[in-house]
Design goal:
single chain; 276 residues; alpha/beta; Rossmann fold
């Protein structure tokens, strides 16, 4: 798939994020919009998955450790064909399969229930260790937030992954510099994140623009080619990417747009899609 095709898909994913959060009247648009390109690349280019058989034993796994970005995961899964796109409008509604955080029991394509920050990466390490133990070829990917990297459990999991040389594990850090309470350097900075992963025996790839598909393509290729160590890809991203009034605004971490803001956001994304 070309980078232009991936850009068009990611733009549709962003529309899905805005639609879902607006319909729910709650949710987390900022981090979801910022992670849209990474998740689009994973599900449309990198990972071996089959929407017709979401539980096939030899599929690659994705753990959304930053589980509050569920709207982005759901929008990507819908674009990939796991369930109808119209279902995005049921986000957080009673009886919906699309809960506020991913639920592996109900939602096709969700490989791990997440939400408590730090725990998802531990589950991903366990999956990768299982595959190694039983000689399975599938790979495990985990998407973390940079604020999430303040959790001690992240580094306990990294310690085990590095010591077990889990080269079938790829951890991706969505590094937008913001968390719910403000800039990470003002809250409890985990920087330098890349050096920390190196200290835990990870091969590290730093991506200057986590919205550039050429850079993502090169980073994931390097991760796949790396043997004898897990890989951490640290991606510089923009929280709220694609919606002008949400970009780099910490206040959009966890609130829904009103009707006027929804119309503005969808108009901007519509224009972006036409330009592609």
């Amino acid at each position: 798939m070309t980078d232009e095709e991936l850009k068009r898909i990611a733009n549709e994913v962003r529309k899905g994020v805005v639609t879902a959060v607006h319909a729910a009247k709650s949710g987390h648009p900022g981090g979801s919009l910022g992670a849209a390109d990474i998740l689009t690349y994973l599900y449309f280019e990198e990972m071996d998955v089959d929407p017709a058989h979401p539980r096939k034993a030899d599929r690659d796994r994705l753990v959304l450790s930053k589980g509050h970005a569920a709207p982005a995961l759901y929008a990507v899964l819908a674009e990939r064909g796991y369930f109808p796109k119209g279902e995005l409008e049921t986000l957080r509604h009673v009886g919906s399969r699309l809960q506020g955080h991913p639920n592996m029991r109900d939602t096709p394509g969700v490989d791990m229930s997440t939400g408590s920050l730090g725990q998802g990466v531990s589950a991903a390490v366990g999956m990768a260790l299982s595959a190694k133990t039983f000689g399975d070829a599938w790979r495990t990917y985990a998407l973390l937030g940079d604020g999430e990297c303040e959790e001690g459990e992240v580094w306990e999991a990294a310690m085990l992954a590095g010591n077990r040389a889990l080269d079938n594990l790829c951890v991706v850090v969505d590094h937008n510099g913001l968390q719910i309470d403000g800039p990470i350097e003002e809250v409890n900075s985990a920087m330098p994140i890349a050096d920390k992963f190196r200290a835990f025996k990870f091969h590290v790839v730093e991506v200057a623009d986590g919205h550039d598909f050429a850079q993502l393509r090169a980073a994931f290729a390097e991760a796949r080619a790396t043997k004898g160590a897990p890989t951490a890809i640290v991606c510089e991203t923009v929280k709220g990417k694609g919606v002008s009034f949400m970009e780099n605004q910490v206040g959009w971490h966890g609130k829904a747009p009103n009707d006027e803001q929804y119309e503005q956001a969808m108009a901007e994304l519509g224009k972006a899609g036409e330009a592609l």
